[in-house]
Specification:
single chain; 243 residues; Rossmann fold; Dihydrodipicolinate Reductase, domain 2; 6-stranded parallel β-sheet; 5-stranded mixed β-sheet; 32% helix; NADP binding; aspartate dehydrogenase [NAD(P)+] activity; DUF108 domain-containing protein
Length: 243
């Protein structure tokens, strides 16, 4: 079976570990065809371009967006018109107009948009719990360290959090899509204590029981948990037995 061709939108700290994994042969069954970048750059072994029209003229089985909410909002429908799309920038879909356009494009083309879990865990548990229409999902999200004195700075719906913190609550929006929705899911957003690790947490209660998850993501040179989620998803998509 020939390798499936995929492309990346973005070439930053999330995309680069994915590119390195592909170069190292760690993504069997995939061929990286192109990368759409904001600034001109050379990427060894891969066609890179700043020209969106040239990028979208390619033929791909999958386009993976890593470039952030603004870029996703700009390119989502164009990408979906050509291939299935995965993104880690779910927060852009808090805009009802963009969501409607994305859904219309997906229905018209039979392509699908997947929201990857990124730096959090528990997406499957939330989805299963929210089969119960009375399920209650509550999220706690730390902002990146150093932004202000420790403490809760927002408590409300995920949709409102997405408006206020458009670059920091992608995981909350993804979890809300898996659950009861952006207007029914509550979230607390906090500035973390500098002495404590960066934290993302969820608790969902339903007639099936309670699921409670905490993650403490770490980011370093060449290491990004969101990149790891993309690598894992690409591997899983090609596995003969998958989860």
């Amino acid at each position: 079976m020939p390798d499936r061709r995929f492309a990346l939108i973005g070439a930053g700290r999330i995309a680069l570990p994915v590119i390195e994994a592909w170069r190292a042969g760690e993504l069997p069954g995939w061929q990286l065809e192109a990368v759409l970048t904001r600034q001109p750059r050379q990427i060894e072994g891969v066609r890179s371009t700043t020209d969106a029209a040239a990028f979208f003229s390619g033929v791909y089985a999958l386009i993976v967006d890593t470039a952030g909410p603004a870029a996703f909002a700009l390119h989502a429908c164009n990408a979906l018109a050509r291939a299935d799309v995965w993104t880690v920038s779910a927060v852009a879909l808090a805009d009802p107009q963009l969501l409607a356009k994305v859904e219309e494009t997906a229905q018209r083309t039979s392509h699908r948009l997947r929201l990857l879990h990124g730096a959090t865990a528990g997406l499957d548990g939330v989805a299963a719990a929210c089969v119960d229409p009375e399920a209650v999902l509550h999220l706690q999200i730390d902002l990146p360290p150093g932004g202000g004195p420790p403490g809760v700075i927002f408590s409300g719906t995920v949709r409102e959090a997405a408006r206020r913190f458009p670059n920091s609550v992608n995981v909350a929006v993804t979890l809300a899509f898996a659950g009861a929705g952006l207007d029914q899911t509550r979230v607390e957003v906090s500035h973390p204590d500098p002495a404590m690790p960066y934290r993302l947490a969820l608790r969902v209660t339903s007639r099936y029981g309670t699921c409670q998850v905490e993650t403490f993501p770490k980011v370093g040179p060449g290491i990004h948990p969101v990149a790891a989620s993309i690598i894992a998803a690409l591997r899983n998509a090609q596995a003969p037995v998958w989860t």
